[in-house]
Amino acid sequence: MTTDGPMDRATDDDTVDSGIYELRVNGGTRVVEGAWLGESLLNVLRDRLGLYGAKNACEQGECGSCSVLVDGRVVCSCLELAAACVGTDITTVEGLDPTGALTDVQRAFVEAGAVQCGFCTPGLVVAAHELLDRRPDPSELEIRESLAGNLCRCTGYGRIVAAVSAAAAERRAAAGGRP
Amino acid sequence: MSGLLRPATLDAALSALGDDPELTVLAGGTDLMVAVNYGQRRPTAVLSLRRLDELTGWRGDGDDVVLGSRLTYAEMQHGELAELLPGLAQAARTVGSPQIRATGTIGGNLGTASPAGDTLPVLAAYDATVEVASAADGHRRVPMAEFVVGPKRTTLRPGELITGVRIRVPHGPQEFLKIGPRNAMVIAVANCALVADRDTATVRCALGSVGPVPLRCVDAEAFVVDHLDWDAGRVDDPRTYETFGALCAEASRPIDDHRSTAEYRRHATGVLARRALMRAFRGGGA
After folding, report:
1. Which residue of B has its CA nearest to A11?
2. A98 at the B interface (CB within 8 A)?
């Protein structure tokens, strides 16, 4: 450790030691040890915290299969510097339902046949949750635009769009609105 | 310790960067992390801007709006800002994916200075001013026309941070058009921004992805102002569109690369510019 770098003059809250830090993931505090400074949130989630829901494919923000929520915004975890996420609330597909049960969106994916190989599914489910929390009654165009960052090479998207529409209708019905 | 600095104030950030101009600056990270993931950059010390509330959002300042450099594409897309700067909102909507737009920032688009940066021609068409700051020299303002000097090269000096973008709000139509292989998740093959201002009777048009830097179409701009009916918001002679498009195509300086050919880009530029003018000013007699 050097003694005169800018890091040593800053207060603790102003620095993160990339060798050991804490992240808030799915409502709990997790200690991250041994990561290197440039390590992505995706790598930390999968290889250090054992959360394999977010998938690793392109590592350049093209495919969306690593999508997670950071402070409620859907982001590519491969493009998040993990150490820069200290102090944020991270939600992975594993944490969408606190009890670990299938969420309404996941059930809709199953019922609509929106899952084939399944690789893109966690990212799509995370993105769909963010959309429905923001827009309870999305048009098909809004669904397609909101999911445009999540690539699926199996389904052709039709059943994915149908699943999100169905989940939205079910939520509205449950809320007493029009189905 | 291998670490990440995350100061809570701009002064602290500028001080840190002044002490070590080699710090890797992190804003949205959507460009930086691709380079890190692919082994092209291996940062040893990172300056995160993510606690700098001073650089978030936007504010009005007289006839100007000042965008914080941490303003995200998603924030440009909606609300009052999108009503003031609809051209910027349109450009933001075409950037990457919702995931990218939730994270990527206008300061990052400027700092990366990619020839394909989608907000850059819009900022050029606004004749915007980039606000930068450093611990050594304080604040300075750089006209957009001087800020980007080449592909991925800017006039930013060591120790300087982009703090914001100042735009005089124009009163008139604004358009942004972009061509790529598909609608989403696409890097521009060519793009075009057109901004008209009734108050000054000016039209500014700028091109992206067809030159090393955003290109202003000064001949096309000078031509078109003489062929507009400002009161009616119309173009009386439909040949104006063709000539305007051709002059913009002439202003392009495209190259062949893995995304397209120079020939196609020049053609596309003419089409985009013509279409932008048609959307901004309808034809007479129609």
Report:
1. B7
2. no
